[in-house]
Each structure stands twice: as structure tokens, then as C-alpha cells.
Amino acid sequence: METEVKLTKLASCAGCGAKVGAGTLVHLLEGFRTHTDPRLIVGYDKSDDASVYVLDDKTALVQTTDFFPPIVDDPFLYGQIAAANALSDVYAMGGEPRLALNIMCIPDSMDKETVQEILRGGYDKAYEAGAIITGGHTIHGAEPIYGLAVSGFVHPDKVLTNSGAKPGDVLILTKPLGIGILTTALKAGIVPDVDEQQAADLEKRIFAQMATLNRAARDVMVRYPVHSCTDITGFALLGHSFEMAQGSGVTIHIETARVPYHKEAAACAEMGLIPAGAYRNRDYAEHGVLVRGDISRSMQDILYDPQTSGGLMMAVPKECASALLDELHEAVPAAARIGYVTEPEEAAIILE
Ligand code: CO
Ligand code: CO
Ligand code: CO
Questions:
Q1: Is CATH 3.90.650.10 the classification given to domain 170-351?
Q2: Which of 41, 47, 266, 333 is the most exposed place for a label (fewest CB within 10 A)?
């Protein structure tokens, strides 16, 4: 549906591109003191996707929240994408979402119908995930914001953190990159070499991708002895890889020729159409990245591009990688092997 005021026009930055940069966040949280609790097995000190608190031998509680300004103009779709993105952090821990709360900020100019469509989109996606939205909190503000606080469950022995990658692992990514670059270019109406119809098709494709739950990928993943997982969102493939490499004490090798991405994003990057978040991600991770070989600037820009509701990246023992990938392909056709893990080498990440 169309709204009178375009949703994305109300937002100064879109989707996960609005995320405070990883470098800034590290700085802001520096020296912040927290309490420990033996039941809190993933908490504040770890830059992981969600916190995990052990309830009993068989159950741990997974909690997370994500919210952002509109990334699309259709309010229902915006609600779906924001919810899929928030739910993803539970999937990234190997868990299953069960309960959720709405978090919302509405400008005075927003009508009731638009608010309801956003909420309906979020509810629809949470329901698809097997979770139920039980309430929430709404405030007034200059820009619209929507997202969820999500609670889910995971077996305490099956928690997947972003710091468990081991030398010898193969890296698998489940959604193609380029979302930040393409949503920015589409909003401005300047995707090179595409006519109106192709631009409309591209928009449809990437909107559908963002609204797709990481549930199917998670359901396949938990049937294998995967070592580590994170979802690729605002900090981009390289920002999240940097966290995984540092947390795991390993070097991550990205085989750039294997990385799935939307071709149109490369054309945009070549023209310098890069969202601000990509520069923040480069600032954060670049000192840990070694470029080995001839890798184009536009490919590097795609690797630093902030993703909204991106895919899962898993570190998988080599022995089971191809079986996992085969099974994954049935549910998630774009899934691909994108690299491998070694003992620490001269950089946290090596692009080859
Ligand atoms: Co995450
Ligand atoms: Co998150
Ligand atoms: Co995780």
C-alpha cells in the first residue's frame, strides 16, 4: 500500500545502516562495569548477537532487541523486515524465538492506518517464526522506528556464539550481499544499467530477501556440529567476520570469488554509490583486513556494506560442510561456501 508521506523520507538513515558503528560502540562501552552471573553464559562483555541465560539443564533463555528507521515505504513490509531482522539474532545463537515485544517510535504526522500496517507486518513475521508478540512500548519522536525485543530458547549445550570458529572450519553464508548499497541506490533512483522494469524487479527481489526469516537456515544448521554462527547485519560481512576472528582467536580467509552478492550492487559501488555505514565498517575492521591479490575496490565495498536482515554465517567442520551445504540449498538456494578458518596468521581477516 502507498502512504501519503513516504516512510523512508521520514528517516535520516535506513535500516541497519542506522546502527552505531562497531568502533564507536566499543568506545562508548569502554570501562562500563557490569555484574556477572554464572547462569549468564553470553552477556554484555561479548559482542554477540544475543544474551543467553541458563534456566535449567535443558533450557537457556535467549534475549535480543533490534529496531531501526524505515528501509522501505510500504509499512507492512517495513514491519516484516524489522521483525525478521530482530528475530534473526535468536536464530544466530541456534535458538528458536517464542515471545516478542514491539518497540516503536511514531512521528505526529503518521496516521493510524500506517501504524497498524507496520505492527501487522511485524506480527505476521513473528507468527511465521512461531513467536507471539505480547505487547510493547510506543513513544513519539521525530523519526519512525520499529523493531522487536525477542525472547527465545536454546539448549544450553547447543548455544552457537560468534567466538567458536576453529582452524579447519569452512565458512558458509546464506544470503547474498549488497543490500545496503542497493537500498540506497534504489531510494535515490540511480541504479546504473537497469531500466524501470529491471529496477522494480530488483527492488522486489531484495525486499523479499530482507523479509525472509533465517529460520530455515537455522533449522538445517542445528542438525550439524557447527562451531560458530553470527548473522551478517549492520557491521557487514567484514565487521562481523572481524568479531568472529577476534573472538575465536583465528584468521578468517574470505574467498572473494565465492561470495554471493547482487550484481547490480557492484555497478553501484563502481560509481561510488556507497552508504555511510560502509565507511564506518571499513574504519572499524580495515586494520584487521589483509588484501591478498587483486580484489577490486567495488568488491571490497560490498564486503563492508551494511546488511539489513542479512543471512547467517556459520563456521562448520570441514568434514560435514558439503552435506550441510547440500541440505541448506534445498531451503536456502543462495547459500554458499565463502571461505575457511586457519590458525592466526598476519591478519584477522585475509581476502583472497
Ligand atoms: Co546479529
Ligand atoms: Co542485532
Ligand atoms: Co551467535
A1: yes
A2: 333
